[in-house]
Design goal:
The chain has helices at 159-169, 184-191; strands spanning 6-14, 19-28, 31-41, 45-54, 59-60, 63-64, 70-82, 85-96, 109-121, 124-135, 142-153. By secondary structure, it is mainly beta.
Length: 192
């Protein structure tokens, strides 16, 4: 159910160099949740560590909140050593308090993901991902592996069509943009 009143307080404490501490505390009716953790941001690396504790009955004005009933730690890193390569890692370990597994009430859940992107040209990108979602502490335990490989290539299908549309309609050309709105009373005043 949605809450009638929700208050949220976020903050960021800049520390030495690229290190900062971020926190968020939120209250809804009589429940609360919070996240806190350090972040390292440099031109080639962004690493986040966040501890969260969100009450089982915490909700937002639109309904259930993300991470509702969870207590856990998130580790996440994006690394771009050179312009054409990007690596991503994410590990989330948490305990479900909302819908725990009655057969294993102390079991933890984990979600791990690795990804690598290679963009040899601006229009071409190869992506590989692998991950494991292990939810043994949930009401319906699951353990699954995921992997994917993708190739993305962007190109113009009909450049002549785009040029024709721009030429005859002015769409996409800012030098031909003009306002066509006038109120009725103004038009009537112009006519007299």
């Amino acid at each position: 159910a949605a809450s009638d009143q929700v208050m949220d307080l976020t903050g960021k404490l800049e520390m030495a160099g690229p290190l900062s501490m971020q926190q968020e505390i939120a209250f809804s009716d009589e429940a609360f949740g919070y996240t806190v953790g350090p972040t390292w941001e440099s031109p080639t690396l962004r690493a986040i560590t966040a501890y969260r504790d969100v009450a089982e009955d915490f909700s937002t004005v639109s309904g259930a909140a993300g991470f509702q009933g969870e207590r856990g730690v998130l580790l996440q890193a994006d690394w771009r050593p050179i312009e054409t390569w990007t690596f991503f890692f994410r590990q989330d370990v948490f305990k479900s308090q909302l819908y725990p597994n009655p057969a294993e009430p102390d079991a933890l859940n984990s979600d791990m993901q690795f990804a690598a992107d290679w963009a040899p040209q601006p229009q071409t990108q190869f992506t590989g991902t692998a991950g494991r979602h292990r939810a043994m502490g949930q009401l319906f335990p699951t353990d699954d592996l995921r992997a994917s490989v993708a190739l993305r290539q962007s190109f113009e299908v009909y450049p002549w069509l785009r040029n024709w549309v721009h030429k005859w309609t002015g769409i996409g050309r800012y030098d031909r943009v003009e306002s066509r709105y006038r109120s009725r009373s103004r038009r009537g005043a112009d006519a007299t």
